[in-house]
Sequence to fold (271 residues):
Amino acid sequence: MTTTDLEYKYRVTVAGATRLLPFTEAKKHTAYPALCIFHQDDPARAEKGSHLCAACVEWVRTSFDDIAQRWPDLEEALGANGGASSAERVSGTGDLYPPLPINTNISEVMGKARALVWSTVGQLIQDRPDQRLPRDHGTGVLADWLARWHVDYLATHPSVDHLLAVGNELAARAEDCRRTVYRANTYELEMRDSHCHQATEDATGQRVPCRGQVVGILKPDGSKVVQCDVDPLHFMPADQWFQGQARRSPRPSRAINTLKKKYAFKRSHDA
Ligand SMILES: [Zn+2]
Ligand SMILES: [Zn+2]
Fold:
């Protein structure tokens, strides 16, 4: 007894005739290309019995993994300013906080990534009804499940169009997730003096004070740095910057001891 009758059916050519076969059977009759279906301007040999080269197999895996890894941070970023994001709650109350446009952006990024992960999983369970989904149906968990166990399923899929569609969408969604988390981790420093204290050279080669403003950044490795918005080479660990601030400040200020996480999008520092 097999479950192949329940499987989604694909059109394949068998002995010159077109037939509609369940996933497992269709795969046996799928003609795989000599070259990877992506990056045709820079051709690479496809793995045997696959539409993809080894590098693209790894790329699919790491892209789903990127979504999985960043999902908790996206959820946190989405919830972080939830209080201020409700236009209904603040309108007409005289409240000074306008609804932040940031959440819309994060929820849009998450919505599109969720749609991709879910449609990929949805097709997978139609193709292979024997597959058991993880108990947790969260997007991060499902993306991780795809990255761990189902990259080969995609790379060898009987429908090359399905793989092309997933692959092209995946590139954009993984990139969105990476960039959004990176930006959401930009800190805004709460401080009286946000001037860059480093020197720079003017047009005539003279040393002059830098006119930049500094902003705090949480790097992906968890370290905090303070970086100038004019010259990205003007940066230092946040601790060191705060010590310098304390020395310059006549009285210790509570404000400069605090890093305020603001999920600010105004500077991305993508370099
Ligand atoms: Zn490739
Ligand atoms: Zn500077």
